[in-house]
Amino acid sequence: MKRTAVALLLALAGLAGPSITSAADAWPNSGPANRAQRDTERVAAMQQARDALAAELGVAQQERSAGQRANERLRAGIAEANNAVEAARAELAAATADLDDLMAAARQFAGDLHALRQRERIVAANAERDGALSAIASAKRPLTSAELRDTWQFLLRELEAATGSRRLEALPGSDEALLKVGAFAAYNADGFYALNAPDPVRLAAPGAPLPPADATGLVAALIDPSRGASPALLAQRGSAAAYWQRILGASGGIGITIAALGALGFSIVLVQLPALMTARRRMQRIVAGQPGKANPLARLMQAAEKSSDGSALERSLRREVARLERGQPLVGLLVAMAPLLGLLGTVTGLIVTFQTLGLYGGSDPSLMAGGISRALTTTALGLAVAVPLALALALLRSLSAACVRMLETFAASHVDAT
Description:
Layout: H1 2-15, H2 17-25, H3 32-119, H4 127-138, H5 145-162, E1 165-168, E2 178-181, E3 185-187, E4 192-193, H6 229-236, H7 240-287, H8 296-306, H9 310-324, H10 328-360, H11 369-417
Antiparallel strand pairs: 1-2, 2-3, 3-4
Helix pairs in contact: 1-3, 3-4, 3-5, 4-5, 7-10, 7-11, 8-9, 8-11, 9-11, 10-11
């Protein structure tokens, strides 16, 4: 750098040569030979400065090239590190996917096992196991190795219990112990009990003990592969009132609303249908020339006799027509609303079903039975209300239209006569 500074100073001195030359020419001893010498010195100084700058430029270019090579090496190292990171991420994702599948399977097993223990009528009480199963099934975090091991052990224990026999404590209200055989039956001294029924269901006669074992040590006894579902369905067969009570209970608030609207519509039909049939019969007797009273045509004839202008007759006609068609718009509205409410119940039932699928998976169909039952029962209730009401509405409209035609015929003939 010092050489560069000296060269720059010499170059500046060379650039300032004309002024110096002019000053030297002012001296008496200055001549052409001196000026040539000074020019030669200035040229030599400028060449030295140029060579110094060229050398410095070469050093800078070498340093730049070295920096570029170092930058390329760094970029290559970064790219190699990024590739290694991506490979590690892919390997971690593959390992995590397997782990996620394992945890999802463990949660599903825990949920199914917990639901199974909750549904069974006769089961060995174990609050700690039930709590652990519920916590594992509802956990939103990654499961620990201890929880995975506990799920496996719980499943093994239930499988062992389902394939063997053991004695359990007595049912509430009973003093005798039970013999539970696998997952299908439980026996006491009186007979066979169902496992999943709301109350114990005896399929054997009271007091009938188990038959003795044969020569091989086996005992022939009743079992229930449905785990109490079949006896429960048999027990549910009762009166029509009990059946409709179960239907309304399964359909929820929407089903109760449909039933209430149906009761309102049928009450209107039951009131209007006899009134219209009676009014038509009495009006037909008047048209046939027989005396009659307390019917729309008789009241219209009385109004026509009392009034001399057609306005009173027209008002009486409108009043009688409105009385004959009373309640029909509301029945028509109920006919349209009942299927829509049934469709709403279907949608809500499907929503409940899919929420259950999201929480517990689809391994146990009984978990989805509530939502599917609501979807089907509300649709059935909506159609059961809408179809009969539609037929009754058609009958009401037919009867009222016949009566209105007789009234309009009389009013037209009276106006023409006057």
